[in-house]
């Protein structure tokens, strides 16, 4: 539930945008926008989950709004349209391919339910990828139409700050545009990390920015990392029948309940995903036949080992997109350790009329629904007289591994650390989904866990369990 606080009244200043001619270039606007002076109440940098939600909400409240969005191609050259990470290289293609993998599993179950399916079943990557990519392209188009319908001006430009109210954009042809606005929202998200210190990592590896846009099957794949992206990608690749290995240097799903995380990886292992535990890659070489030879250090045995793969997927975390924004020109402060933008409970940065939402903001969950809600609430506070703040506590999340894992609140480890072992009670239950019974599926990792605070309070000396 959102906590309540009073939003500060904003001065009613208006700002103008001007079109700048680059050296030797003609005056004109990018993307066919008409030349001439215009005012913006709100300028949003980044057309992803948070930015689009904020812009649309502000426009619905009758404000003059512009969104700038630009996708820097991945090192591999993959590019995509409007909508940000979730739509193009995150939740949407991931969930659809996860579904493709689950369907494969269901086809295996189908004969128990009377379906006669010819064996062996085959999966066609090309067909799946094309269908998923076409759906994503339709979403890109849908976002453009929604902006147009709400009269939000869209600029396909890469933005950086000139001063506290002005942003410069470079359009595809190199043309420069200056846009100014009363309020500016930074919603530029993040991009996958590359371990550039590893020889061959950038040259031969890919990331989640590429995997969903591959036209050909990735084949035998090594996934490096052990969090959401790594486990989800490895799970779906295994599910569609590819030889898949996860290389993890430490524990799976850091920050999640470790008992539950182990159940997730045990299930994956029993369904074909291979795990190299305690290992870190040291270099990648391309062999004459095109395969990638990966050398790694086994931290447990201390030995070096080697394997060949068709694809190496880095899933080792993400970096916020703040480096090219020229934040210092506007006086917006970042955390020097991770380059995320420092924000307060109003989503305001160190500059009161510049805000940051979504993955780019410090201390926020990197999830689409929170970015969307934060964007909507921010627009309402700025223009709709609402004073509701985004409440980031107890945000539920799901890891879309072959056995899906949903959770909310503190893990058992965090609960013990916060409240003490003697002050909590943990409830465990195995369960068997009904559909597993007929298909005789193994349900040994289907598990529910709830912890509650032990406390005295009601007439019986105990409160009912608190689901935190
Ligand atoms: C593989 C994967 C799977 C995921 N699955 C889920 C899931 O199942 N559920 C979930 O809740 N979350 C999921 N996420 C996380 C989710 O995608 C992000 O939390 C969400 O997209 C963040 O939204 P955002 O608005 O902060 O930024 P983004 O959606 O990343 O949008 C930022 C936009 O700004 C643009 N931009 C950057 N710099 C500039 C600039 N200088 N000028 C102009 N434009 C710029 C970017 O190109 C991008 O279009 C997943 C992420 C990944 C990588
Ligand atoms: N279903 C969903 O909602 C969903 C799905 C995908 C992504 N997301 C969002 O996207 C965010 C990013 O996820 P992510 O999985 O990319 O990153 P992440 O949560 O930051 O995890 C990074 C993983 O890579 C490992 N790692 C880091 N550096 C490494 C290195 N140099 N060598 C080897 N391993 C390394 C980490 O191991 P250590 O633990 O040892 O550090 C960890 O396992 C998440 O926080 C999540 O909010 C959400």
From TrEMBL:
GO biological process: cell redox homeostasis; cellular response to oxidative stress; glutathione metabolic process
Molecular function per GO: flavin adenine dinucleotide binding; glutathione-disulfide reductase (NADPH) activity; thioredoxin-disulfide reductase (NADPH) activity
Residue ranges of every copy of the FAD/NAD(P)-binding domain listed in the record: 40-375
Catalytic activity, EC: 1.8.1.9
Reported cofactor(s): FAD
Keyword Metal-binding belongs to the record: no
Disulfide bonds: 86-91
Entry keyword set: Disulfide bond, FAD, Flavoprotein, NAD, NADP, Nucleotide-binding, Oxidoreductase, Redox-active center, Selenocysteine
Highest rank taxon of the organism: Eukaryota
Cofactor binding notes: Binds 1 FAD per subunit.
Binding site for NAD(+): 225-232, 317
Binding sites annotated in the UniProt record for FAD: 95, 359
Domain Pyridine nucleotide-disulphide oxidoreductase dimerisation, chain residue ranges per copy: 395-450
Presence of the UniProt keyword Hydrolase in the record: no
Identification of the protein by name: thioredoxin-disulfide reductase (NADPH)
Source organism: Octodon degus (Degu)
Gene transcribed to yield this protein: Txnrd2
